From TrEMBL:
This is ABC transporter ATP-binding protein. It comes from the Bacteria. GO terms for molecular function: ATP binding; ATP hydrolysis activity. It comes from Acuticoccus sediminis. Keywords: ATP-binding, Nucleotide-binding, Transport. Belongs to the ABC transporter superfamily. GO terms for cellular component: plasma membrane. PROSITE patterns: ABC_TRANSPORTER_1, ABC_TRANSPORTER_2. Residues 6-253 form the ABC transporter domain. Pfam families: ABC_tran, BCA_ABC_TP_C. The keyword Transport applies.
Length: 257
């Protein structure tokens, strides 16, 4: 059996004494390389906090998070990003006046010179490879016909797909997706599902927080159910669908599953 690529070992996080992640023993969770983990649970379950801990926005009160065996440096988002972890936010941090393609070209950890080039319109001939890669990624996420459009003209669903393309431009080893299907039409959702399958085949590890259970349970290898910061259940999608505790605590209210 392959070793876990990402491992949370007895991780806890509290806000003002209130437990957000991890019970008495902390939250322990693993993801295998090239697998897709679905993180689900009711509002306030601790899903976003877990993402914030993995991406280094928050520091665990206790416990360790490891990537390929190496402990992640807490509250060092830039260093964690450089280790190959990319997070696609619900609201992309895009430049509205730049084109869709340029926003992908200046993906977060590209050198500042690319941002300068985009803002002044002075891309160099040598940036062509970057432009071609951005266009290819945009085609993959279903935005081929929006490549040269200003970002301000995109719909909410298209913005989500742009954010996915922006993060993929960084060739992450671990991709965190925060509710990627919200506001995305069924055609683009289908494309996203196929893309995630291809990324996994290429070895990318993916964690998705998603309320759209029909989508998530169709693509996940493994599902973890959080309730009040604790792991209620984990397992393959079929086992999660049938788990009486999960149905009572969460799925009962989500008939889409
Ligand atoms: N910065 C913060 N300060 C104080 N409390 C917080 C903070 N962030 C989260 N919490 C609390 O931690 C708990 C877990 O919140 P979190 O946002 O992680 O849940 P979630 O599962 O992502 O919920 P949702 O599905 O609504 O996004 C909640 O009780 C929330 O109110």
């Amino acid at each position: 059996m392959s070793q876990p690529f990402l491992n949370l070992d007895r991780v806890t996080k509290r806000f003002g004494g209130l437990k957000a992640v991890g019970g008495d023993d902390g939250l322990s969770l693993s993801v295998t390389e090239g697998h897709l983990l679905g993180l689900i649970g009711p509002n306030g379950a601790g899903k976003s906090t877990t993402f914030n801990l993995i991406s280094g926005v928050l520091k665990p009160d206790s416990g360790t998070i490891r990537l390929a065996g190496a402990p992640l440096p807490a509250t060092k988002p830039d260093r964690i990003a450089a280790m190959g972890i990319a997070r696609a936010f619900q609201q992309p941090r895009a430049f509205p006046s730049l084109s869709v393609r340029e926003n992908v070209m200046i993906a977060p950890d590209n050198p500042g010179e690319h941002i300068w080039a985009a803002l002044t319109g002075r891309w160099r001939e040598t940036d062509r490879g970057l432009a071609d890669e951005a266009a290819a990624l945009l085609s993959v996420v279903g935005l081929a016909d929006r490549v040269d459009a200003p970002v301000s003209t995109l719909s909410g669903g298209e913005l989500r797909m742009l954010e996915v393309a922006r993060q993929l431009m960084r060739h992450p080893r671990l991709l965190l997706l925060d509710e990627p299907t919200a506001g995305v039409d069924p055609k683009l959702q289908k494309r996203l599902g196929a893309l995630l399958g291809e990324l996994k085949q290429g070895g990318t590890t993916i964690i998705i927080v998603e309320h759209n259970l029909h989508f998530l349970l169709g693509i996940a290898d493994h599902v973890a159910v959080l309730v009040r910061g604790e792991l209620l259940a984990e397992g393959p999608p079929d086992a999660i669908r049938r788990d009486e505790r999960v149905i009572a605590a969460y799925l009962g209210a989500n008939h889409a599953a």
